[in-house]
Amino acid sequence: MTTKTTLRGALLATSALMISAGLAAAQDYSKYGIKEDVPGACSFASIDAKDYSGRTLNIITHAIPVIGEPTALHAQQFQELTGATVNVVHVPFGDLFQRIMIPFQTGQQAYDVLFFASLWLGDFNPYLAEVPQAYQEVSGMQSVTPTYKGVATWNGKMLNYTMDGDRHYLKYRSDVFSNPEMQALFKEKTGRDLTVPATWEEYNEVAAVFNNMDWDGDGAPNFGTAEVTKRDDLMFSAFISRVAAYAKHPDVKGGFFFDLATMEPLVNTPGWVKGLEMFVAAQASMPPGGTSFGLGDEIFSFGGGQALMSYSWDDAFIQAMQEDSPIRNKVAAAPLPGATEVWNRTTGQWDKFDTPNTAPYVTWGWSSAVASASENQDMAFDYLCFFGNEANTLADLQIGRFGVNPYREAHFDPAFYETELGWDVNTATTYTDTLKAIDGGQNQVFDLRVPGVGEFMSSLAAGVARAQSGEATAQEALDGVAAEWKAIVDRIGVDRVREAYANVVALEDK
Amino acid sequence: MRTLYLALKYLAVLLWSAFVIFPFLWMISTSFKTANAVTGGAKWLPWLQFEPSLSGWQSLFGGVGGINILKPYANSAIVTLSGSAIALVLGTLAAYGLSRFTFKAGPLKNGDITFFFISQRIMPPIVLAIPFFLMLRFLGLLDTLPGLILIYVAMLMPIAVWVMVDFFNSVPRGLDEMAWMDGCTPVTTFLRVILPNALPGLVVAAMFCLIFGWNDFFFAFTMTFTEVQLLPVSIVALNSSVTPWWSLSAAAIVSVAPLAVLAFVVERFLSRGGLAGAVR
Amino acid sequence: MYRQKYIFLLPGLLVLVAIILFPLLFTIRVSFSSWDVYNPGLNWIGGENYARLWEDARYWEALTRLSVLTVGTVLLQYTLGFALALLVWRDIIARRFFRVLFLVPMMTTPVVMSVIWRTIFHESLGPLNPILDAIGIGAQPWLSQAGHAFAAVMIVEVWQWTPFMFLLLLAGLLSLPNEPFLAARIDGAGPIRTFLSVTFPMMGAISVGAILIRLIEASKLMETVYVLTSGGPGTSTETTSYYIYIRGMRDFQIGYSASLSLTYLIVMSVALTLIAKALIRLMVKDRT
């Protein structure tokens, strides 16, 4: 019996069990923190019916709380429901990659279920088990948006199990933007109206005007922008957000990081240089220490009310909307600023856009997968399916620190945030509108999910850091990065990188 | 003049004391904070400046919101004590040999052999992570206590050797020679005569072994997965994108406690003149 | 009778060699391969890694930076440690309390304390800048400017490891014989002269040992940099260990980082031997 048949058989059997048990036997699973169990192959009821006692499941995940806490929570639930022993190992982000990679490369079967950054799929894909057809057909998976299904796929096979969906978007203090005094002040200083920044030039301008000013009346100065700038702490993602609109031309296909045909790095082209110059210029509007903020610092800075604007993952927004946050319901969301001039690499010119070009950055988020060498794949996929079942996800979405962000159509409904979480209408609507705009948007940018992505990104971050500290100009820094990237591609093998990058370009050029 | 000198002396001591205590005070205060207390500027005083909360401390003792440090605590204790004990025994023996006898291996003499021991401390742990990983995997000792103890013995023996060689070198050979003249073999001399007098040196060596062992992060991190977790690793695992300042502070206080007791013990030994001649 | 000498040396030596032999040989072998994320395994590429290393400016800069950092912090630790030991040696109230207090920082876990220090140095949320403001020095850009970041790392190291020097030197002071001091008092020597002619020379051997061990340990500096600055701003606090970590664990270039490590081992061994010889000549008149 192949694993596939066993799994399919198992799923069918449980569904049959469930149906025969009858809906009347619906147990109350609300003690597990969910509102109500949504029927399906991986609902609480279905998983409860399974018996894995005597078996052990090993899971590696991120540190608590981001993804680490829901992993542990659902692991405990799974343990109670099925009788399996579930071990969870938590690893800080900076070390997660090698903790997963070293056992893979040395043939050590250490973990059955893995949680990792989705951009590492390029490195991990040889070691992952394909999600069986049966699991792809469960309602939870079917309702994942096409964008995120694409992110989970590699060379036509679904290797990641989607349980989170991320993007970068602009967050700003709606109370300041809608404050007549602030609007007047802005008009006085710049001659134009205070609007949500539609371009990065506007963003930098707004940040500068409101920098080092006490606009929330608490006696301490506030600042314009909080960005992730610490070299080895995800700064590369913030940088990509800043560059995307200048460098991703909607009419020029075939690659964003590289020209897919020639595999020439594009990181030192004028679009990228311009983005870096803007990033460096924004440093003047950052809080003290803001030029080496890690993600955690950015979350505290925007979420704690110090900075006017920020952009990156959901965390800062969620932090701001916590029950006890002083700026609850005073924030709003918008798509990332765009650019009125975009570099066209085929013509070698800057093209002007009357409506600013936007390039939504569908940034990496959390992914899960099952190791192909695992001997517990049935349990592993059941766990993941359970983790991502509709009931659990709706509950997880409500707890900001969990790090689970919207990825199903149902998650883009503002009513959910208004009723379940008590968000006010403006916050909820701008949030879900932004999510929909990014998800359905054209001209999307995805991460460089190729083997060795870590090297490419750390080289990029080092170059950006040099420009930020003034050690080099933006052009010089990025020229250095381009040269390093060429060397890395040579070392890994042009064809391997191109083959992998083709996956990413396919997502972008769809 | 004399009063000025005294005043300066006390001032210096107090300044340094303040420098030492400062992080600890901050840690204690922060361990009772939540996210709101952290943003908006540094605060020190609970109830006066912020609402204290026990969530940082609670997150250390189980529950889904945090980790349970009791098991890692115990594991750290076991591994550190065993590793140090073995390293001490082997290291002291080797040190005595290097101090009292001459060895020659080609051009290499005592001094070189001692240097060989000490040079094991030069290699940064990262470098050795993968080969140790492979070695333990081959021996089937990955993610086990014995496997870690093995690594710790290699890591701590150089310290034991260094301290004890210096110590034995400062103990006059007269004692040994008397014992030999009485007909004792070197081994008996060592066990019956020298060792009982070696307590001061052993205390210093043991202390360093315990400190370096207890506080190791990197080897424990690389060689363990799920079965065995050591304390520093489980603490660092709290480091997520929102750095939980409160949990980390609480954890730091808890992890330093046993060694602080050790500091006390060592100081008593020092003051009673017990360490006279411990380090030449 | 002298056969028995091997009973002493061999158990420890053999155990040590057994444990580290494989890792050492493995590291040597892998440095001649190109093991990385897409080429796992031991192929043979000859000395390519070493050739690359030779031209790797970032590596050599890291080494230079490390030397400055290490020598600087160790000298500071030595001076401060010695001063502290002298201060609480005798004639001071509550000296037992101070001695215990001064020992405690060494007992903490470096990686955990680094996280605490990061919160202390945090320019927006940490307690240090407000205090500096209050006493008139003004807030400093601790982690966002090169010079300050370097200083921040040094401060953390000094806090953590001065107790090490302090302990060794205090133990040494406590074991000094009394006669030379009595002689000095009779001669009418003041505290400074006593120190220079009596105390310091007698502490020569201990000082050398302590400094050498501290140099070895300090040069492995990685965790503090990792947590506090990530080698930044730019590369201004990147030490060799940290760079090896980036190349090895982040970029996953196992082969190249092995060659970096071995070169580092050789350079350090040579440097330390030279320093040891120089120090012994300088500070120890007759070695007993």
TrEMBL record, chain A:
Q: Which InterPro entries does the record associate with it?
A: Bact_solute-bd_prot1
Which residues does UniProt assign to the signal peptide? 1-26
Q: Which domain of life is it from?
A: Bacteria
Question: Keyword annotations for this protein?
Answer: Signal
Note whether Signal occurs among the keywords: yes
Q: Which residues form a coiled coil?
A: none
Q: What is this protein called?
A: ABC transporter substrate-binding protein
Q: Which organism is it from?
A: Tabrizicola soli
Q: What is the lineage of its organism?
A: Bacteria, Pseudomonadati, Pseudomonadota, Alphaproteobacteria, Rhodobacterales
Automatic annotation (TrEMBL), chain B:
CDD domains documented for this protein: TM_PBP2
- Residue stretches spanning the membrane: 7-28, 78-101, 122-142, 148-168, 245-266
Q: Where in the cell is it found?
A: Cell membrane
Q: Does the keyword Phosphoprotein apply?
A: no
Q: Which Pfam families match?
A: BPD_transp_1 (PF00528)
Identify its membrane topology class.
Multi-pass membrane protein
| InterPro entries named in the record | BP-dep_ABC_trans_perm (IPR050901), MetI-like (IPR000515), MetI-like_sf (IPR035906)
Q: Which UniProt keywords apply?
A: Cell membrane, Membrane, Transmembrane, Transmembrane helix, Transport
Top-rank taxon, per record: Bacteria
Task: List residues of the ABC transmembrane type-1 domain.
Answer: 73-266
Q: Which PANTHER family match?
A: ABC TRANSPORTER PERMEASE PROTEIN, MALTOSE TRANSPORT SYSTEM PERMEASE-RELATED
Regarding protein family, the annotation reads: Belongs to the binding-protein-dependent transport system permease family.
Protein name as catalogued: Carbohydrate ABC transporter permease
Automatic annotation (TrEMBL), chain C:
Q: What Pfam families does UniProt report for this protein, alphabetically? A: BPD_transp_1
Matches recorded under PANTHER family: GLUCOSE IMPORT SYSTEM PERMEASE PROTEIN GLCT (PTHR43759:SF1), TREHALOSE TRANSPORT SYSTEM PERMEASE PROTEIN SUGA (PTHR43759)
Domain ABC transmembrane type-1 per the UniProt entry, residue ranges? 63-275
Q: What family does this chain come from, according to its entry?
A: Belongs to the binding-protein-dependent transport system permease family.
Instruction: Supply the alphabetized keyword list.
Output: Membrane, Transmembrane, Transmembrane helix, Transport
Transmembrane residue ranges: 7-28, 66-88, 100-120, 149-174, 195-216, 258-280
Species source reads Tabrizicola soli
Mind telling me which CDD domains this protein's record contains? TM_PBP2 (cd06261)
Q: Provide the protein's localization.
A: Cell membrane
Query: What's the protein name?
Result: Carbohydrate ABC transporter permease
> This protein's superkingdom?
Bacteria
Q: Please give the InterPro entries that the UniProt record associates with this protein.
A: MetI-like, MetI-like_sf, Sugar_ABC_transporter
- Gene3D superfamilies in UniProt: MetI-like (1.10.3720.10)
The membrane-topology field of this record reads: Multi-pass membrane protein
